[in-house]
Structure prediction request, 280 residues.
Amino acid sequence: MKKITFLIYLSLMFSSVFLDFYSLEKNDNKNYINVNNKYNLKKSLKAPLYSVFIPGSGQYLVNDDKTKGLIFLGLEIIALAGYNHYLNKADDYKVQYQIYGDNHWNFVTWCNNYYDWESPSNDFFYVFANDESGVYPGISEDSHHIDFTYNDNGIIRYISSSSSAFEDLYVNENLQNEESAQDFYNNNDVIIRRDHNFYENISKYNHFFAGWDDHDAIYTYDNNGYIVATSDNKAIYRSIYDKSVQNYRTKNNFVKFIFINHFASMLDALIVSKISSNRT
Prediction:
C-alpha cells in the first residue's frame, strides 16, 4: 500500500514538472512569434517609408533587392536631371522674351496707334473688330488688360486698361496723341506691371498688337480659326515665348514622373515586404 502511494506521489510530481516545462516552452514560442511578428511589421513598414522619400532605398536597404533599388534610384536621378535641365532652359527663354518684349513693345506706342485700323474700309479692320457686333472695340473694352501705376499729383494710382478709369484717362490726357502720351508717361512716373499676364497679353491678343514697334508691317495668320495680327518682331517674340512655355511643360512632365516613381517604388516595397513577412 505504501509503495502504491509512493508511486502515485512520484507520478503526480513528474506530471507537475512536465506541465510546468510545457507551459514555459509554450510561452517562449508565443514570445518568439510576437517578436518575429513585430520585426516583420517594422520591416514591412520601413521599406515603403524609405522608398517614398528616396525611390529604391526600401528595395536596396530593407528588401535586399539591389537591382530593383538601383533601377528606381536611377530613374529618380534621370528625372531630376531632366527637371533641372528643362527648368533652366525655360527660365533662359523667359529672360530672352522679356528683354525682347520690353525692347519692342511700348505702352505709348500702343496708346498712340490703337485706332489705326478702326475704319471699316481698312484691310485689317475685321481682325480687330468684335466678332459678334462687328464694331471696333474701344481701347478699354477688352477682358484682357495691362495694369500700371502713375503719379497723380503725389497720389500713386493703380489703373487697369480694361477699366472706365483708364478710358477717362485716355481721353483726358489725349493719349492717342504720341507727344501727349509720351509726356504723360514721363511726367507721371508710369510703371507698367510686367508680370506673366503682361507678357502673355502682348504675345497672344490682337488688342495689344498696336504696341509693337513694327505694327505698320502688319500681317495675319489663322490660328485654329482665330485670326492673329502679327509682325516680324511680334513673331520673333512669340517664337521665344513658345519655347519657354514648351520647356516649362516638359519640366512639369518630369515632376509628374518623379511623383509616379516615388509612388511606384513605395508600392513595390510594400508589396514585397508583405509577401516576405507572410512567408516567415
Remarks:
- The first strand starts at residue 147 and ends at 152.
- Strands lie at 147-152, 155-160, 191-192, 219-223, 226-230.
